[in-house]
Design a protein that fits this description.
Elements lengths: L1 H28 L3 H6 L2 H43 L1 H8 L2 H38 L1 H6 L3 H54 L4 H27 L1
Length: about 230
């Protein structure tokens, strides 16, 4: 069943990209001469091939994970609320402090990704111009010039990708930090409640374990949101 599910979800992702790529190609083919003068061949090719490939990742790997983590989060949320309803509500008030900066981070990631796509298109443009005009390059002895152009574009693409990696990596520590703060507060509260006999050690332990398990799907869903 797991193998069949993997095949189906990839079939959906690849089929969606294939259809979208065909739609974009048909749209490009019917453009006028002004469009092809304003956009280089390499830039158009980069959009059709590389940019659309990101959608396939989102629709195959990430969509399946999103469904799995969503159901896991709902199940654990039900356990937490059933175990200690009032304590769960207090504990979950920390979520807005996690989600708001995460959403803002998602907007930054979109801008960074757009910049990386443009940088990849520029790199493809240099590559296409150099390879298709190799006779001109050799005639003027401009190999070093083209090499430097390619290096500059490649380093620019690397920097954009690294910026994306850093932004994507920040979300997880933010959630873990707020989770740690919440647990410290809960332990202090639980100590008082157990002393007063309002709750037992076993009940509180079950609550904390379910709450800690809940942070993992929330963390995963945050990362999935940024990738989408």
């Amino acid at each position: 069943c797991d193998s069949f599910a993997t095949y189906l979800i990839h079939f959906v992702g690849l089929s969606a990209v294939t259809d979208l790529r065909q739609t974009v190609f048909d749209r490009v083919v019917h453009q006028d001469a002004h469009f092809f003068e304003a956009n280089s061949t390499a830039r158009v090719m980069s959009s059709i091939m590389n940019d659309l490939e990101k959608i396939q990742v989102a629709l195959s790997h990430i969509l399946a994970d999103w469904l799995r983590q969503s159901f896991t989060a709902l199940g654990l949320l039900a356990v937490v609320l059933q175990t200690e309803c009032l304590l769960a509500v207090v504990s979950l008030t920390v979520l807005p402090f996690v989600l708001v900066p995460t959403l803002r981070l998602g907007r930054k990631i979109r801008r960074t990704t757009r910049r990386a796509q443009d940088d990849a298109a520029e790199l493809n443009q240099v590559l296409q111009e150099t390879l298709s005009g190799h006779q001109v390059v050799k005639s003027f002895g401009a190999e070093d010039v083209e090499s430097n152009r390619f290096r500059a574009r490649a380093e620019k693409l690397r920097d954009s990708n690294l910026r994306y990696v850093v932004q994507q990596a920040i979300a997880s520590p933010v959630i873990e930090f707020f989770g740690a703060v919440t647990i410290v507060g809960l332990l202090t509260y639980a100590r008082l409640q157990i002393k007063a006999g309002a709750t037992t050690t076993g009940e509180f332990t079950s609550f904390v374990i379910a709450l800690l398990m809940l942070y993992e799907p929330v963390k995963r869903l945050t990362g999935i949101h940024n990738i989408f």
